[in-house]
């Protein structure tokens, strides 16, 4: 048996379907011509699953110094430091990287020992985020330390030290929690305006004794993104923690597109990095410098001409 709608209802149904299709193409984009290209025109916009927005770029002519990204086997790396890139955020001026540097000190009961103090040196346009990272130190009666360099008056480099103390007397006193609360694992905020640092872990005599050494011969210190590390009490007695975490832990870097202030940068003409018409300059809080954002009501890439769209 056939079924049909009156002519008036057919017209209403056709209008409704047309509106739905128009809404769908508006929300999700009807083609590449409507999409916003975040990379420099003609340049790759991805390495593996990592988006590479300008001023970062991979390939000749695709980046602004020192934001060269190398792509190897679908993994992205900051060319200036060699660390692996996990994510680049234009809006917040952040780049998440993988920090493989884990400092250690082991004192074995047979009399042998080993020490590794490691760190990271960044170019002048990157700083270690002082709000998104923490110093983590694992061990018993150990002092974990960050020794970093910051720029003082007249651009003199000054040492900055931050530390935390991890204490426990025997295996039963180690915290049975994923947090670093001080018994077997401690944590400390990261200081600001740091472009290079070393981490180290040191036993504190006479608190560190033969009893502690017998069940906790090694200690470890590293910088990691907040909440990226979960403590396990077995780490206190581990002698292979570094080999277990060979790639280390995520680390958040703040970056600036220039070391001038906004009041200075806006007078630089063609050297001013905020190239889009509907963009604005942002002074950063973690050290000197500025970055760019699209103005309110606009989205896209403020570092490209025509990059911010309503």
UniProtKB/TrEMBL annotation:
Molecular function as annotated in GO: polysaccharide binding
Cellular component GO terms, alphabetical: membrane
Membrane-topology annotation of the record: Single-pass membrane protein
Keyword terms: Signal
Signal peptide: 1-29
Record domain Wall-associated receptor kinase galacturonan-binding: where: 43-98
Keyword tRNA processing among record annotations: no
Record protein name field: Wall-associated receptor kinase galacturonan-binding domain-containing protein
């Amino acid at each position: 048996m056939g079924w049909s709608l009156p002519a008036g209802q057919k017209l209403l149904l056709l209008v409704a379907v047309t509106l739905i299709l128009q809404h769908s193409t508006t929300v999700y984009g009807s083609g590449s011509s409507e999409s916003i290209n975040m990379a420099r025109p003609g340049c790759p916009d991805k390495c593996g699953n990592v988006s590479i927005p300008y001023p970062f770029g991979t390939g000749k002519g695709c980046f602004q110094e020192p934001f060269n990204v190398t792509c190897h086997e679908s993994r992205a790396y900051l060319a200036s430091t060699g660390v692996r890139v996990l994510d680049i955020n234009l809006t917040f001026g952040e780049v998440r990287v993988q920090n493989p540097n884990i400092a250690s000190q082991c004192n074995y009961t047979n009399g042998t020992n080993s020490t590794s103090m490691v760190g990271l040196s960044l170019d002048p346009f990157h700083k270690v985020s002082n709000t998104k990272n923490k110093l983590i130190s694992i061990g018993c009666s150990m002092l974990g330390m960050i020794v970093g360099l910051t720029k003082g008056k007249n651009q003199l480099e000054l040492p900055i030290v931050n530390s935390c103390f991890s204490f426990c007397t025997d295996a039963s006193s180690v915290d049975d929690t994923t947090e670093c609360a001080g018994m077997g694992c401690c944590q400390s905020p990261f200081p600001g305006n740091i472009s290079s640092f070393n981490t180290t872990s040191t036993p504190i005599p006479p608190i560190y004794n033969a009893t502690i050494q017998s069940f906790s011969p090694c200690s470890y210190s590293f910088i990691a993104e907040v909440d990226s590390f979960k403590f396990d009490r077995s780490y206190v007695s581990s002698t292979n923690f570094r080999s277990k975490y060979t790639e280390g832990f995520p680390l958040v870097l703040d970056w600036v597109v220039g070391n001038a202030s906004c009041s200075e940068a806006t007078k630089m003409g063609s050297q001013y990095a905020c190239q889009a018409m509907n963009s604005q300059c942002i002074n950063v809080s973690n050290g000197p410098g500025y970055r760019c954002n699209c103005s309110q009501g606009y989205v896209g890439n403020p570092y490209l001409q025509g990059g911010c769209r309503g």
